[in-house]
User: Fold 5'-nucleotidase from Clitoria ternatea.
Amino acid sequence: MIHRLQLQGIINESFRSCHFPFPCFSHYLPTTTRVSFSSFSCGKVTEMEQVKVDSDMLVGDPVLLQTKIDAIRLAGPNNLQVIADFDATLTKFWVNGARGHSSHGLLQQGNPDFDAKRQALYDYYHPLEFSPDIEIEEKTKLMLEWWGKTHALLVEGGLTYESIKQSVANGNIAFREGVSELFEFLEERDIPVLIFSAGLADIIEEVLRQKLHRTFNNLRIVSNRMVFDDDGNLVSFKGKLIHSLNKNEHALDMAAPVDEQFGDTDAPTNDNGSVKERTNVLLLGDHLGDLGMSKGVNYENRISVGFLNHNIENSLSCYQEAFDVVFLNDAPMWGVTNLVSQMCSS
Ligand SMILES: [Mg+2]
Assistant:
């Protein structure tokens, strides 16, 4: 079932908010509806935050957005593709009152020593990933190092596919409400969805399997792919390593379809050509860096949607400048589905 929100109404509502200059956030919020603000320490979430505004959907330039929607609608669904980040974009940021797991973070290797070793790598490299004092070239080397060491520990520590299943079952991870309906809407119109992640493809597939309880022919996952032996033991990784800083380089070359044979890396990928010919893009992300996911696509029109999940007070102006649409407060996916239905209406 598709929830058909009145987009124009939402845009108008957001437009009122946008008359206020950013980044003066206090002007933006209705004074009586501000619920709570978290305390943050260097981007680290210490408590759940919630911001009450007229709408959880904000549009910086409603006229530009409408122009893009009209252009995409005129070109037709055959020219549209969706490129989506996975963690905290398709999945919720908060799950059961706690920070939701990422596809990487939920993994329990079944070997506490190796779980601790991977955690130690996280503790060392994660601050470097966001350090403003490290040049991008050096940082890219560090990310390659981090991902490489982590993958090596997964092989060395004896990861099995069974432990992935168990980790997903035990993980604190959930899709945003309406994700399944969005995929279904897109599948019915043969619009491909590229899920682009620096995490682990096999885990993402297992999350899709366990949480959505169905498959979609239009989904493809571009992420790090594991290779298991006949007994379900991880033996290696396949393809180029995708880390947080090179998510823009491998989009179509690494893509493999997700279907009933999840994890079948020999499955044909001959849809890449048709995806490359789709010149209109709906991009979904939760990080400014996710905007780079559409690099390599020679698009004519791109509508970018950003989910601003935390550090809202400091980040809202940047997100509003960078994304055509911003969703706050761990919003469900209904607003995106509505956008897509506008793009596909005849
Ligand atoms: Mg993300």
About this structure: The domain at 100-169 is CATH 1.10.150.340 (DNA polymerase; domain 1). The chain has eleven helices and 13 strands. The longest helix spans residues 136-156. The mean pLDDT is 81.
